[in-house]
Amino acid sequence: MKRVLLLGGTGDALTIARRLGPDHVYSLAGLGRMPGDLLCSVRAGGFGGVEGLNTFIDAESIGLIVDATHPYAAQMSRHASTAGVLKSIECWALRRAPWQPQAGDDWREAADFADILHAIAPYKHPLWTLGREPLAHLDEIPPSQHWTIRCLDLHPGNARATIIAARGPFSLDGERALFDAQQTDVVVSKNSGGAATEAKLAVARERGLPVLMLQRPRLPQVEREFSDTNSLLNALEAWLHPHSLFDKTL
Ligand code: NAP
Hints:
- This protein has 7 helices and 12 strands.
- By secondary structure, it is of the alpha/beta class.
- The chain folds into 2 domains: 4-97 and 217-240, Rossmann fold (3-Layer(aba) Sandwich); 106-214, 3-Layer(aba) Sandwich (Rossmann fold), CATH 3.40.50.720.
- The protein has a 6-stranded parallel beta sheet, with helices on both faces.
- Helix 6 (199-207) links the parallel strand 10 and strand 11.
- Bound molecules: NADP nicotinamide-adenine-dinucleotide phosphate.
- The site of NADP nicotinamide-adenine-dinucleotide phosphate (NAP) has 22 residues, from strand 2, helix 2 and helix 3.
- NADP nicotinamide-adenine-dinucleotide phosphate is lined by residues 7-9, 27-29, 31, 46-49, 52-53, 69-70, 72-76, 79, 131.
- Its EC number is 1.3.1.-, 1.3.1.54.
- This is Cobalt-precorrin-6X reductase.
- InterPro entries: Precorrin-6x_reduct (IPR003723).
């Protein structure tokens, strides 16, 4: 049996998972929502490093790993590629293209969190949109700043921080209203790519605001890379059913 292990954590991964039949496994880190309406099996939580992933691959007779994790989930991607080599199975990856700056953008690249803190020092109202990491730094917010932190987690704020638990996609008008309400004067972002969360960049451009862009991590080489879900789904179709062009469920 040809069995696929799909590593998720993105909307694109969910799109692929919706096409997978019951033979296949969709794996999530367990940080967000668990879809309850898929034909494939769904599991959540870490495997226990490369060793745990190898054990899982053996136990579940996995024949192909598809890495559709977030571009910043580099550890999971590294483990997937290493396990593929060790188990002599292919690892494919969906690698979403990064956003590119346009005329009028004022993007500044940041190497890490410390770099971001240094770069936002002159600003009063940063909007953080890179996940839960700033939640661990609420006690370090300088008196001159009020942070707005948008992430998936519900978390209490404090006198210097407003936490907004929200999941994209975000609209242009919604982002404009957020920037107005929070008096945003600088945006902190990952370069996630894709349409779901890019409206904030357009609003920053309209207003001439700087965007601190956290550098993308280096990702491992894999056997096949795809830049969009359709080409990956077509390749999966060919891998699973080399003699049929018309299967709807993979
Ligand atoms: P990571 O550093 O690559 O992964 C940490 C560990 O989480 C992995 O080693 C693995 O544990 C487990 N893991 C991650 N993805 C998994 C999956 N699909 N199935 C099973 N286990 C998985 O990634 P991260 O800590 O989750 O996130 C790193 C960055 O990516 C953060 O900035 C985060 O905001 C962003 N991000 C992640 C996700 C996500 O779903 N992971 C979604 C959106 C954004 P074991 O070593 O035990 O196997």
